[in-house]
Design goal:
- With 433 residues, the protein is of the alpha+beta class.
- 46% of the residues are buried.
- Strands 1-2-6-3-7-18 form a 6-stranded mixed sheet, sandwiched between helices. The chain has a 4-stranded antiparallel sheet with strand order 4-5-20-19, with helices on one face. A 4-stranded antiparallel sheet has the order 12-16-10-17.
- The chain has 10 helices and 20 strands.
Length: 433
């Protein structure tokens, strides 16, 4: 006899407490019951949010999603504020909601309003199919935004929100941050400096039969290599007078990056675009360029645009110095320079993060879902929580379960909304005691 998906979901999310796990207290049980009774409302609000296009460059759409959430936070007694950015940044701004209090730890909850899907994309609507749904940004990260809200609603419903110290930060340009980063993330960094704990609500990870806690995320920054050579007739290439040309020099540098810089755990770097020849153009904002060259002409220019990911700022600096050392060597009649551009910093796996992981793992076990080991940092990309990681303890991946982010197949397991809201509400409750 086949068991329906509904019954499977029920077994997953209403499983009795595992042997050895402490039972939830009376207030915590009331929190979980409220979530079960109101999860359908959370999905209804998620649908409304997903059906509002909020691609990063659709400023009006981002404001509209922000208005949808602002009304909800106003009703909870939060003070909401739309943070405008300078016009030259060309981004919509951010929504912050503050609950002033004096009890427990100061908690920062992080989401983002924008998606990668602009108004001209074909993928625009929430579509439900049983216990799953597809839609632009449904996993990354409109579901996480709703989870934050409903975790706080659950606390209010049991009179556990009073006097808590909470700031909710929804950035409006996570998918394509404006520049300079020091300007567009200034308010988030200040919130991180204020906070004792930061929780990021991008999608959770469930694999190999268990849930995983995200205590670390790698940095994400850019590098740009420009190589020059002596343009000449190809019959003279490799001679003392003509030298090796720009393309051979670029190939040498990339090969030595691979052989000499690669290898340290959690360090990766990628050459994402390369153009070379006699005449070269490259637009780093658009990640595209043009090249012209002939087989009988030694090329004079190469541009390589790449990215680098590290587990710490120290690792990033070591990698940069190693790359600079490679670039400083030159084949005959060539020159090269490399420029590094700061991006998202690393969220290192600190002892404080591990303590939060232990708290969340206890909650997960009490909800009948087992322990939560720490996820390998290489399995997650960069996120806004990394900007506050130097100042406060944190956990990321507090959202629901989904897949296909940034693609037309982006989907969410709707049954996971309930457990994600419960986990968040219970963790915030314990942190605020």
């Amino acid at each position: 006899m086949m068991v329906s998906r509904f019954l499977i979901a029920l077994l997953l999310f209403v499983t009795p407490v595992l042997a050895g796990a402490e039972p939830l207290d009376e207030t915590e049980q009331a929190i979980t019951k409220w979530v079960d009774s109101n999860v359908d409302d959370s999905i209804d609000l998620l649908e409304k949010s997903v059906n509002i296009n909020s691609g990063t460059m659709n400023h009006a759409g981002i404001h509209k999603v922000g208005d949808l959430l602002s009304r909800e936070f106003d009703a909870l007694g939060f003070k909401t504020e739309w943070i405008e950015l300078p016009a030259e940044v060309n981004r919509a701004g951010h929504l912050f909601a503050t609950h002033a209090g004096s009890k427990g730890r100061k908690i920062l909850l992080i989401g983002h309003l924008d998606t990668v899907f602009e108004p001209d994309d074909a993928f625009q609507s929430f579509v439900r199919n049983g216990d799953s749904a597809t839609g632009p940004g449904i996993e990354d990260m409109k579901s996480g935004n709703i989870i934050i809200l409903y975790a706080l609603k659950a606390l209010q419903a049991v009179d556990a929100l009073d006097d808590t110290q909470i700031v909710v930060a929804y950035t409006g340009d996570e998918e394509k941050p404006g520049e300079p980063l020091a300007v567009v993330r200034e308010d988030l960094v200040k919130a991180g400096q204020w906070a004792d704990v930061a929780l990021g609500f991008e999608a959770a990870i469930h694999s190999d039969g268990q849930d995983w806690a995200t205590i670390a995320r790698r940095s994400s920054s850019d590098w740009r290599l420009e190589v020059s050579g002596k343009q000449a007739h190809s019959s003279g290439i490799f001679s003392e007078e003509t030298g090796a040309g720009a393309i051979f020099e670029a190939a040498r540098i990339l090969n030595e990056f691979y052989n000499e810089v690669r290898g340290e755990e959690y360090l990766t770097f990628n050459a994402g675009a390369i153009v070379g020849g006699t005449e070269v153009t490259y637009d780093s904002e658009q990640n595209r360029g043009t090249a012209f060259g002939k087989t009988n002409v030694v090329p004079r220019k190469v541009v390589v645009h790449g990215g680098i990911r590290t587990i710490s700022n120290d690792q990033l600096e070591r990698a940069r110095q190693a790359m600079l050392a490679v670039v400083a060597r030159h084949l005959p009649q060539t020159d090269a320079k490399i420029v590094f551009e700061d991006g998202y910093p690393a969220m290192a796996p600190t002892d404080g993060n591990k303590q939060l992981q232990s708290m969340l793992s206890d909650i997960n076990e009490q909800l009948g879902r087992g322990r939560m080991p720490a996820l390998d940092p290489s399995q997650r990309g960069a996120a806004d929580i990394s900007f506050v990681a130097p100042y406060t303890d944190g956990l990321a991946g507090m959202g629901a379960l989904g897949s296909g982010g940034h693609t037309p197949d982006e989907q969410l397991d709707l049954t996971s909304m309930s457990v994600a809201i419960k986990r968040a509400a219970l963790l915030i409750y314990r942190l605020s005691r």
